[in-house]
Amino acid sequence: MSRRGDWQRVSKRRRCPVCGRADWCLYAGPADAPTAVICARVESSKRAGEAGWLHVLRNDGPVWTPWRRNLGRAIRMMTTETADGRPDLGKLAESAAKWCGEHPEALARFARSLGLSVTSLQRLAVGYSPPRRAWSFPMTDAAGNVLGIRLRSPSGRKWSVRGGKEGLFVPSGMEPGGRLLVCEGPTDTAALLDLGFPTVGRPSCMGGVRHVVELVQRLHPAEAVIVADHDEPGQRGADWLASSLAAYVPVLRVIRPPDGLKDARAWRQAGGTAADVEAAIEAAEPRRLAVTVQVT
Question: I need a labelling partner for 45 at 20 to 30 A (CA). Which of 37, 55, 190, 250 fits?
């Protein structure tokens, strides 16, 4: 790592390659291809005292190219705002997805690292944000409007773009009717898509209930299946969603992966097949709306 004397302050001519700003941040190495940055605005897993967060620019994800070539895109992605000053999440998600279209080999490496297919990630509009050095998963409402963006670093750290709200991970190509699976998170959603099931993902075990109800009202599935994580919070969240969803679908079931497997992606990675998921669905008792009549 560079000595203290090797660090240089960014400027209008040498902007920060992480946040795109011209003040506060520091960089080390050649000006046209810095090797490390201490960014005062974008967090990483390593805090550098009061100066900010350390970002080591190395090939642990998509190949790093000289920062001056990426500067314009970085600034656009960091400063794209709506009329009221909030980040334009739709444009940020679109720009990140476009990056993946321009770098298919990077998306293929990411898919392999997760044990998922490129196709399922593309259906979820997965992108990559160079200034944040993170993969992006847009969250939408039932109508497809981007509400928030979940980020995932190459090391697996997860966070969200500030200014957004929680929504659903909804793949493209969803058709009305039939069976709809509901799980937690974007990678579980992709795993079930790989097995051939129409699936949407919730932002957390207790989140997204209203959006799921609104999506069900739009798609009118004949059956909904909640795929719960194999832990106590996952089961509790599945029961909560089921109590809210039972009035909107003819048939509702709740399943979970076999013992020893945490979630749908782990089930898929352990060799789970579409037939295994079908068997679990058929074995689950339908949940019904409980109506209590009080006689006075």
Answer: 190
